[in-house]
Protein: DUF948 domain-containing protein
Amino acid sequence: MLWPMFFLVLAFCGITVLGVLAVRVGLEVRRLARAVGDGCERLAVAADELERAAAPLAARAGRAAER
Structure:
């Protein structure tokens, strides 16, 4: 009777460890998703700034090409 109880406790401990690791992975995935979202927002802002900065240059290049 000792060995079956030992294996039952061992299995329970293993499942508990897997549960804790699953929770940790879930939290890290949430943090990574938040970081990716912030990065996407920063890229969108940078693209808008680049587009605004390039507009006068493109207009000048267009006028130079007409001459």
Remarks:
- The two ends are 97 Å apart (CA to CA).
